[in-house]
Amino acid sequence: MKGSHQAKYARAAIILAVASAAVACSRQQQANIDSAVDSGTVAIRTAFSVIDIDMGRRVDADNKITDKTDVFAATDTIYASVHTSGTATSSPVMARWTLNDTTTVEEKTQNVTTSGDAYTTFSLAKPGGLAVGKYTLHVIIDGKEVRTKDVSVR
Asked: In terms of CATH architecture, what is 49-153?
């Protein structure tokens, strides 16, 4: 009888040791996962990228569109507010306007310096008025098109 109690205690001790090791391992794995997620989040936050583009007829002092629309008259000025995020030091952001997907109407580049969110405004207008059709704003960073936005002039 004495031997069977010792065997039970020995088995219980082994089970407890294995369970403790599993918990410790899980904690370490969780710490590794948390660290990787935190590092990835920092990398995502610091990468300079375009979040969105808003279009409209007016822009405020913060370079944000005050009256969003995607339909314009030929005599309107089309404003595009390009919302970027991340870290940039004098990074060139190019806006290329095309008409009906074939004709480049205009290209402008602005240098952006930011360590968070920024709004950069581009505009398109012609003295005699814009031609009727579909205009596409192509936003290009580091030679790569990263975002587009279509509007129409009627």
From this structure: Sandwich (2.60)
